[in-house]
Design goal:
This protein is an alpha/beta fold. It is about 45% helix and about 10% strand. It is built from 20 helices and 14 strands. The longest helix has about 30 residues. The two termini are about 45 Å apart.
Length: about 550
C-alpha cells in the first residue's frame, strides 16, 4: 500500500467578525480562538500510514514548501472562510497539487467549489472511505456525497491533537453530539446534521478528554455541539461520568458550550453542568418579540421569561453569551428599544447582535426564493454582523440598519457594558472545585493580567474607571466569580472595537440608503402578489424527524 503526504489547510476567517476575538487573543498571548476540530478528526479517519501535516491559516503561514511536500491538499470550512478557501484552492492548483474540499459550506453550496479537484460532501465518517478507495485506485477527480443524518457518531475516532500547537489557541473544542431537535426557520444546523441529535458514548467522550489531558493540555474546553442539550437523556448519562473524571484529576478542564433556553427549566441538568465545571453557555435568544419567535419557528423561547431563565443559569454558576437578530419580516416599527431592554433585563454583557442572513439551503432561503426576494452574497462574505440582509426586506432597509446601529451603540457603551458585568459578577454562584497548581499556569496568568491591566488603564485610559470599579466590586462581594468577570472584561477589548467598526459601516450604509435602497424594499401588496403566483410551487423541505429525547 502506497503512503501519501496529505497537507490539511484550515482557511482563514474574516478578521472583522464577532468570532475573530483578535484583541482577546492578543491579551491571552495566543494567535486565534480555537483549532480546527473537524480537520483533526478527519485526519484520524485517514489511513494510518498516510503522512499528515496541518496548517491553520489563522495561526500560521502556509508556505509553498508545505504545498510542494504534499501529494494532495485537503481544505474547506464554513461560510466566513469561503473567500480564503478559494484562495487556497487556486494557490495549490497553480502549484500542480490536487485539492480536496469539504466541510459545512461546501456541503451547503457545492457549486461554489467547482474549481476543486474533489468535493467530499457530507459528514466525513459516512463518505471518506469511498474517497480513500478512489484515490488509492488512481482516481484524481470527482464528487463524493454521503447520506444525510445517517452517520453513527459512536464510530468517530479521537481527533489527532498532536497535529496542533496548543499554545496558539484560546481553547480547544470537543464534540459530544450533532443535530438539534428544534426547527428554526433561519438555521442551517438541522439541514446539515438533522433534527435527531446523535451522541457519542460516555467512553468515547472521556477517551477524547483523556487524550487532551495526556497531551498536557489544561484549561478551557468548548463542547462545540450546536445544542448540547438536544438529547437530554444522553447528556444526563454523560455528566455524572464526566464529574467523576474531573474530580479524580482535580478539575483540569472548565467547559463552555451552546444550548437552547429550555436548559433553564431543568434544575437537575443545571446542577450537573455546574458540578462538571461548565462556566459559560451560548444561547440563541434572537428576539424578545413573541410574534417574531413564533413566525420563525423558535417557539421554545416564548414559553418562559427570558430574564428569569438567564438568571437561573447565573445561579448555577455559568454566565451567558447570547445571540440576537435584527431584520425579521415580522418586525413592526423600531425593534431597538425592546432588544436593548431585553439585554439589560437579562444582564448579558456579551451579546452577539447580527443581521438576519438567509443561509444556503435553509427553510428561510427556500421561502425567500419562492417570494423572489433573495439577493446574491457579495464577494468576500463576512459573518452575520457584516453580511446579513441578503434579501429584499419588508421594512425599509434603512430602518433596519438604524435599529441595528442603535442596539450596538447602547449595549457597548462602556458604562452599560461594565455595569452588566458587575451584575453578573454578583449573581454568578460558582462551585468550589479544587484545582491543581502549576508554576507554569501561574506565570501565564500573571502575564495575562499584566497585559490586561496595561490595556485597560494605560492604552485605553477611558476604560480605567470602569475596569477598576468592576474588579473591586466583584472581588469584594463575590470573589469566586472574579475570574469570570475578568473574562467578560477582556471580551470588551474585542467587542468595543468591533462594535465601533460595525457602527461606522452601518453609518455609511444608512447614508447610502438615502440615495438608493440596495435591498429594494418590497411592499406588502407586491409581496402577496408574488406569493400568490408562487403558491403552487414545490418548496423543497428537509427530511425531518421528531425527537422525543429533548
Amino acid at each position: 500500500m502506497t503512503s501519501f503526504n496529505v497537507l490539511m489547510v484550515f482557511p482563514e476567517f474574516k478578521h472583522n467578525s464577532f468570532w475573530s476575538l483578535k484583541a482577546v487573543c492578543d491579551i491571552y498571548g495566543v494567535r486565534c480562538p480555537a483549532p480546527p476540530l473537524g480537520l483533526m478528526t478527519l485526519a484520524a479517519m485517514l489511513p494510518r500510514d498516510w503522512n499528515i501535516k496541518l496548517v491553520d491559516r489563522n495561526a500560521q503561514k502556509l508556505e509553498n514548501r508545505d504545498i510542494a511536500w504534499a501529494d494532495m491538499v485537503m481544505t474547506g470550512g464554513m461560510l466566513p472562510q469561503r473567500e480564503d478557501t478559494l484562495i487556497v484552492i487556486d494557490l495549490c492548483k497553480s502549484l500542480g497539487k490536487p485539492v480536496v474540499v469539504g466541510g459545512p459550506d461546501p456541503m451547503s453550496s457545492p457549486e461554489s467549489y467547482a474549481r476543486a479537484d474533489f468535493r467530499v460532501l457530507g459528514e466525513a465518517e459516512g463518505i471518506i472511505h469511498e474517497f480513500v478507495e478512489a484515490w488509492e485506485a488512481g482516481v484524481r477527480t470527482g464528487t463524493f456525497e454521503g447520506k444525510r443524518f445517517q452517520v453513527d457518531v459512536t464510530q468517530t475516532p479521537i481527533p489527532r491533537y498532536e497535529l496542533i500547537d496548543f499554545k496558539n489557541y484560546l481553547y480547544v473544542g470537543v464534540q459530544f453530539s450533532r443535530g438539534c431537535p428544534f426547527n428554526c426557520e433561519f438555521c442551517d444546523i438541522i439541514e446539515l446534521y438533522g433534527r435527531v441529535p446523535r451522541s457519542k458514548t460516555n467512553e468515547q467522550m472521556l477517551a477524547e478528554l483523556q487524550s487532551l489531558y495526556d497531551a498536557g493540555y489544561r484549561g478551557h474546553v468548548d463542547f462545540v455541539d450546536d445544542n448540547l442539550i438536544g438529547n437530554k437523556k444522553a447528556l444526563k448519562r454523560l455528566l455524572p461520568a464526566l464529574i467523576a473524571w474531573q474530580k479524580e484529576r482535580k478539575y483540569p478542564f472548565e467547559f463552555s458550550t451552546e444550548a437552547s433556553m429550555n436548559l433553564a427549566d431543568d434544575s437537575q441538568l443545571l446542577d450537573l453542568l455546574k458540578e462538571a465545571n461548565f462556566f459559560a453557555i451560548f444561547v440563541g435568544i434572537e428576539s424578545p418579540d413573541t410574534d417574531t419567535l413564533v413566525a420563525t419557528q423558535k417557539k421554545q423561547n416564548t414559553r418562559r421569561s427570558l430574564a428569569d431563565s438567564v438568571h437561573r443559569i447565573y445561579a448555577a454558576g455559568m454566565f451567558v453569551i447570547a445571540g440576537f437578530i435584527v431584520g425579521f419580516d415580522t418586525e413592526k416599527g423600531s425593534v431597538a428599544d425592546g432588544m436593548i431592554d431585553c439585554i439589560e433585563a437579562t444582564g448579558i454583557p456579551v451579546s452577539m447582535v447580527g443581521l438576519l442572513t438567509a443561509l444556503p439551503n435553509t427553510q428561510l432561503t427556500r421561502r425567500l426564493e419562492v417570494e423572489q426576494r433573495l439577493i446574491p452574497f457579495a464577494s468576500g462574505v463576512g459573518d452575520q454582523c457584516t453580511a446579513g440582509l441578503n434579501f429584499r426586506t419588508l421594512r425599509p432597509r434603512k430602518e433596519i440598519l438604524q435599529d441595528y446601529k442603535s442596539v450596538l451603540e447602547a449595549i457597548y457603551r462602556p458604562a452599560d457594558y461594565f455595569e452588566r458585568i458587575r451584575r453578573v459578577g454578583l449573581a454568578l454562584k460558582r462551585p468550589d472545585h479544587p484545582s491543581e497548581f502549576s508554576f507554569k499556569t501561574a506565570a501565564y496568568d500573571a502575564g495575562f493580567l499584566w497585559r490586561l491591566v496595561w490595556r485597560m488603564t494605560i492604552t485605553q485610559p477611558e476604560l480605567r474607571p470602569h475596569f477598576w470599579k468592576t474588579v473591586t466590586s466583584v472581588a469584594w462581594h463575590n470573589p469566586a466569580a472574579l475570574e469570570y468577570a475578568i473574562i467578560l472584561i477582556t471580551f470588551y477589548l474585542h467587542m468595543g472595537t468591533f462594535s465601533k467598526f460595525l457602527i461606522g459601516d452601518l453609518t455609511r450604509q444608512i447614508e447610502a440608503a438615502d440615495v438608493e435602497d440596495p435591498g429594494g424594499r418590497i411592499s406588502e401588496a407586491r409581496l402577496q402578489s408574488r406569493i400568490s403566483v408562487a403558491a403552487n410551487a414545490q418548496i423543497s423541505q428537509p427530511t425531518i424527524h421528531v425527537d422525543d429525547a429533548a
